[in-house]
Amino acid sequence: MSWRTQNKTLQILEAAEKGRYGVLAAIVYNVEHITAMVRAAENRRSPLILQLFPSSLIQTPSLVYAATAAAKTASVPISIHLDHAQDADQIQYVADHLPVDSVMVDMSHYEEEENLAKTKALREYCHARGISVEAETGRIEGGEDGIMDTGDLAGILTKEDEVEKFIAAGVDFLAPSVGNVHGDYPPQGPYLDMERLQNIFQAMNGRARLVLHGTNDFSPELTKACIEAGVTKVNVNKLVLDPWHEYTRANAQKPLTQLMAEGMDVLTASMKRWMDIVGSSGQVQSHMEKGSIYNQYPSDDP
Ligand SMILES: [Zn+2]
């Protein structure tokens, strides 16, 4: 299918699986986030996935267009992904009207059979419009700023036989539940079933890419271990945004443009650090001739 060779999220993650590195899929809430993250990708010659929550499409409807414009003008591969889309009508609207490369069709709040049936139907809808699809097997517990909490629904670890069913449903990216949770971990930190993660990757056998959700509080070592186990799409939110949150809270009295500029520098540094950790730094081999508006702001720091 020709659309697959044009789909940016597919291309970015297939290259990552071949090269055995991870790619940050970072949640953005505003234009400073987009700008700082794209600057980091340019500086590191790294691919990047910019993610929006469905709530952003309502709260700041122009943000997806800002992200798309940034991705288009960047000299490294950057794709736009809609994370945790849980409403079938909204998914169809997005597929018909918005410039996204991929969507997480998250039907994990339904039981397995219904989850699969809805995922398959929406996957077909998205593929027909050139959009690649991520789905969640099992159920990842918790909530994040901008997505619905699973509330009383218990987390369900992904079983190996489910992998086959989701592959048969035609999804491109699979987000398993292996002890990872959304939001913050207990004081002892995250504990993942690494054997289950490895078995899932093996069962996928190159037919889809492996996605990691719930990375708050992850250490560089644990993140690298997940990539070694086969993860290519590394979803990040607070993990990379926390230094920016801390900076803006502590400096809210500064003039707005100064606060924005310094905050973006903090976030760019945070992104560069995590691009180095996941191994995506330097992976964009061919230096494209195309100029980039982000190159007007080169950053000297390592
Ligand atoms: Zn998630």
UniProtKB/TrEMBL annotation:
EC number assigned by the record: 4.1.2.13
Residues engaged in binding Zn(2+) 1: 84, 182, 213
Pathway: Carbohydrate degradation; glycolysis; D-glyceraldehyde 3-phosphate and glycerone phosphate from D-glucose: step 4/4
CDD domains: TBP_aldolase_IIB
Protein origin, superkingdom: Eukaryota
SUPFAM superfamilies attached to this UniProt entry: Aldolase
Pfam families according to UniProt: F_bP_aldolase (PF01116)
Signal peptide range: none
Cofactor dependence: Zn(2+)
Catalysed transformations (reactions): beta-D-fructose 1,6-bisphosphate = D-glyceraldehyde 3-phosphate + dihydroxyacetone phosphate
GO molecular function, one term: fructose-bisphosphate aldolase activity
Record note on cofactor: Binds 2 Zn(2+) ions per subunit. One is catalytic and the other provides a structural contribution.
RNA-binding is among the record's keywords: no
Family in the record: Belongs to the class II fructose-bisphosphate aldolase family.
Function, in words: Catalyzes the aldol condensation of dihydroxyacetone phosphate (DHAP or glycerone-phosphate) with glyceraldehyde 3-phosphate (G3P) to form fructose 1,6-bisphosphate (FBP) in gluconeogenesis and the reverse reaction in glycolysis.
The name this protein goes by in its record: Fructose-bisphosphate aldolase
Originating species: Aspergillus nanangensis
